[in-house]
Amino acid sequence: MQLTDCDMRLIENWQRGFPLVPHPYSAIGSKVGLSEADVIERLRKLKMAGILVRVGATVRPNAAGASTLAALRVPSECMDDVVAIINAEPSVTHNYEREHAFNLWFVVTAADRGSVDRVLGRIGTQTGLDLLNLPLQRSYFIDLGFAVNGQASQPARRPEVAGAKPALPRASEADRRLLRAIENGLPLAPMPYRRIAADLGIGQSAVMHRLASLSESGVISRFGLIVRHHELGFTANAMAVWDIADAEVDAVGERIAAFPFVTLCYRRQRHLPQWPYNLFCMIHGRERAATQRHVDEIAQGARIATRPHAVLFSSRRFKQRGATFAQA
User: Fold this and answer.
1) Which structural domain range is residue 313 located in?
2) What pTM was estimated for this model as a whole?
3) Which region among 169-173, 237-241, 291-295 has the lowest average model confidence (pLDDT)?
4) pLDDT > 70: what percent of the chain?
5) What sign does the CA torsion over 300, 273, 265, 92 have?
6) DSSP 139
7) Which of 88, 160, 187, 321 is deepest in the core (most CB within 10 A)?
8) How far apart are CA 63 and CA 319, in angstroms?
9) Is the per-residue pLDDT at 239 higher than 50?
10) CB distance 243 to 124 below 8 Å
11) Element (H, E) at 232
């Protein structure tokens, strides 16, 4: 799909800060010179083209359920069968092949830790492969908004360290019901919040107020257009990992999070002896050489050039969808 100027303005400006008003698509249209119907139709076409995943929320990890990153070392001749097993699990949201001995990486998100563990157990049993389970310990920066022309608004780069506040907020059971109701996105209809409210048996204003509160508290990390980066030309994407001393990792994580090209930065549990790395960051780039230069810049700027590290470029995407908060 060839993006028009209007398409690019929609993507650039509405990946966050989506209007919490009864007619949000009309509010957007008034900003970009389109009618409500035109905005809805353009978003529908972007979704049909696979560029737009949904209009909705990204939820801070573990704020409304539980999640983990896992990896497998898959023989090439078994890859298709293993991918099919993993993709069959509804709680698997992302599944990527990466350039490393541990070559298949996937994210599991579910209602609670027990559900996550059950999914991992099924995958381990069905594949017969040893699995790396790398749960999140602290996040420093998480944002997957992408600039089509380099002009999209960017969030303030405040480190999201779990100890920076007495306790990070978690969603209540009522909040989780709301988040489950919008897992697949807001309806592409003139009054989407009214439809969500009807499904939940509450008022439209209550839905908008609660979404605003969840966004303000940080349970919702971003509310707007959720797009696929590969379809926007971000095809040279790398997960860079380092082995950093536990006493230093938070300070280093905050330094890495400050780089403007870093989209994710977090600390995860090591899995010794197979996986010694505890500090992760993602860089989504358009060219491999430029992405590698960014990794090198991080190593120098964060003063970790001598630390053991690895760079895992993505080679194939097998699954990408929003989180689910159902029990599994």
Assistant:
1) 66-148+230-317
2) 0.87
3) 169-173
4) 91
5) positive
6) E
7) 160
8) 22
9) yes
10) no
11) none
